[in-house]
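worker-3 :: picked APC family permease
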Amino acid sequence: MPAEPTPNQLGDDEHLKVLGYEGSFNRSMSLWANFALGFTYLSPLVGVYSLFAVALTIGGPPSIWWIVIVGAGQLLVSLVFGEVVSQYPIHGGVYPWARRLWGRRYAWMAAWVYIWAMIVTITSVAEFGSGFVASLFELELTPTINLAITLALLVLAFVFNFSGTKTLARVAQIGLAAELVGVIGLGLYLLIFQRKQEFSVFFDTMGVEGDGSYLTAFMGAALAGLFLFYGFEACGDVAEEVSNPARRIPKAMTMTILVGGVSALFSFGGYVLAAPDLASIVAGDDPDPIPHILESTLGPVGAKLFLVVAVTAFISCVLSLQAAASRLLFSFARDGMIPGHRWLAKVSEKNKVPTNALIVACTVPALLAVLIFLNDGLLLPITSFAVLGIYVAFQMVVLASLRQRLKGWRPAGPFSLGAWGLIVNILALAYGVFAMVLLATPGATGDFFTDYVVLIGLGVVAISGALYLFIARPDRKSDAPAGDAIAVADEIRTRTGATAAVDAPAAR
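worker-3 :: tokens ->
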């Protein structure tokens, strides 16, 4: 359990000055709004719906246990992030954390991989959401209609984001309510009133292993959990818009993982237990089973109401993704680490949001959507690397945190794991390596591009980023602080009077 925070704490503006920045944003985001942002980014409704059929086809009903396994692993990561953001409550999340824990070039690579993974995720979520919108309005989902709806979702999210932090918080909270109704509420209803399978089905492989080992099939279904549990880091991306972020953001990230995990379990489990013909789903005969399950359990009217909830959740998810991506771009630009940094670092005087960074976070996904319209075969290769890219960026922060701990860093924020910090950090890194190996393992279809598309996508992004880094040398053009974790911790303790409290036991 986290240790009790120190009795004295720096004010938000003073804390920011210690880190080398001046406040440019309205701190109007509460704990619940910050949690809502992370939760709607994580979006268990989107994750479960997207991978339900795939998970059952590969791993059968026991694939639900990946939600528990990955949730536990990502909880460890969120605790490491919690200590880091508590000392560094500044915009951008992964980028400034990697910079302050390691250095400029290291942070460049982490941010480059992460920003592209986020932008691709924005595109893919908007693309998936277009199907729900089309179903709600009973439109035939032609490529043209799909593109129009995708672009409309991106623009709508941009308009909400452009309106300011308060609007972002309100819409995120509406999305949170929609998610909870759509996953926990519906999941409980299916479990209690529409159950057609026994609970023992979650230990029944239903023959997916064929003549081989079930372990192989189970490991193949890992994406059911790995795709779901990221988004909690978005709570830290907007740190400078949160009141008392050093305390609240670690709580919001932990809540996102815990509530998201419970929600996903109820949702996934409810669909499995309510499926009237589970065998056909596991056999792969029904590639999109959730609409059929809803139709048979809720009826036409109930299914339509669920679509309203789902569309609301998708809009909120795109909104949260755009907000997180724009703050990362702003943070990157504020330190002079990206082309066009002066333009990208501008903050609207009226709405107090990074307007130009928001434009990029909307425009680039829109351009990707147009490319997908021109060649729908591009959707898989440009999105396949996203999950692995995000895990790579996460683990670069976890590794940098462990490196600083071994050099003597003791996190100085009000959220602290105390003596457990090193153990949790090691376990989080071990989990992350395990997850990345699972994500990077090539498929077995026999087609080179299909089997290696995840590694190809990550390789293209990583190599292009490395080439720019070593040719343009943006790290040499930035004089923002880097690698100062120990020095900043000492300064915070000095200003809060915590140094004496820490040194006292040794003096005795």
